[in-house]
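Dear support,

I submitted the protein below through the web form. The confirmation email said the job was done, but the results page showed an empty box. After a refresh the structure appeared. I'm attaching both so you can tell me whether what I see now is the final result or a partial one.
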Amino acid sequence: MHRWWRDAVIYQVYVRSFLDSTGDGIGDLAGVRAGLPYLKKLGVDGIWLSPFYPSPQHDHGYDVADYCDVDPTFGDLAEFDHLTEAAHRLGIRVLLDIVPNHCSSDHPWFQAALAAEPGSPERARFHFADGRGPDGSEPPNNWHAMFGGPAWTRITETDGRPGQWYLHMFTPEQPDWNWRNPETAAEFDRVLRFWLDRGVDGFRIDVAAGLFKHVDLPDSPDPEADARTRDSVNPLAWNQPEVHDVWRHWRAVCEEYAARDGAERLLVGEVSVPNAREHAQYVRSDELHQAFFFDLLSAPWDADAFRKVISEAMADIAGTGSTVTWVLNNHDQVRTVTRYGEPTVEGSGLGPARARAAALLMLALPGAAYIYQGEELGLPEVVDLPDDVLTDPIFRRTGSRARVRDGCRVPLPWSGQASPFGFTTGDGRAKPWLPQPEYFAEYATDRALADTRSFWHLYRDGLQLRSSLAQLHDGRLTWLDTPPGVLAFVRGDGLVCAVNFGTAPTPAPVSGTPLLSSGPCPADVLPGSTAAWWINGL
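What the results page shows now:
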């Protein structure tokens, strides 16, 4: 069986911001289908679709009201089938985003729980509890939600009395499932099979270290840790040992389908845990195939820092038999050009050079890689969106713009000199759901494809070279001695990758030499090297 996922490059499609086929200003599944030839030309192996399920969109689809349908905003099941079929014809695999930690407060099961009595089977599917204090007016524990505010909301019972509280580790519109209830596991088994029967190639699992909470729901010694870091660090709410049984079962379901036709279905988890060693526990041979390794994304621009996180990943994660799943960005992070550069509106300064270097470094590493849409265009973060257009629930919950995620979700520019830059293909009367800045014209796809020096060509050439190296997935990597500020390694297939982090001599460009090649490395950086991938991050 070909283990395609081990070295696959997957492109994350944030559906509402990719391409709008109806003219309503919101991207949709038909728009994704129209963009498939573009992604085929780029050279990716698959796409991961952000949630498109029926949802009130309090958190842009991560509040799911029905896991087995398509929200009319994005199309319908027939359009999803057309998209999957079209992708498969082009050799592109399709991964769905599944959200098992929480659902929408509009979900029928949660609505049934609100209408039921305390202690009922309906409420047992979620985390309902009596409040503390003589009148139950205090939350059951002191946990805070990751998106700000308490992690508990009190309901009004059907007779009008103040009632129980329910747990939501993100927003009140996203109640957490109770995975200690066997009905929850059975329901998600049904959901998995529904989509696998429609031909999907796997799932990206949201909040994969969540699901189970400490059985006693005790107070946390640091109740504001999740809200302060906006990460899943409360050890009572995340990374409970029982979660591994879920992934063993899901892996068995995927292998059942693989046994029928010889094609492996992929499970890749969003796993936020303290270190690479705990990360490795999620990708053991009978659990998830892969889990995003976020430490590379969060590492400062420093050769020693990159070497440290790469070494830890190769030692702990690759040792499980899985491969490391590298990522530099996603829909929750500041775009790479801006993160590595200066805090200016257009991300000028060192950001573009560093983002280019980081991209090629990621593509050179053994394992799989995920690319967030727009990174291949070098798009900067849109940092000056006015308050009245922000839609991120973090802003609504906290009143602060810190870590608000709208800036990386602005719709893609495809063509032209003014908004909507080809994003919406209707009559043009509907504006994109987030405003596009004027400078997006410089990053439009048509311009990027025409300029061989663009980010797009850098990614395309890197992907082509990567796909030509048959031993990429063998997992071997040896560090080389280098001058200060340079990171260099040799892979099992003999390719050398060298990255200048800003202090090594910059090689003089050679006329006629392509930006990306497997030719000689500058002698003053790696003396004696004859085959190298030289990346200048100055």
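Response: this is the final, complete result; the empty box was a page-load delay. The mean pLDDT is 89.
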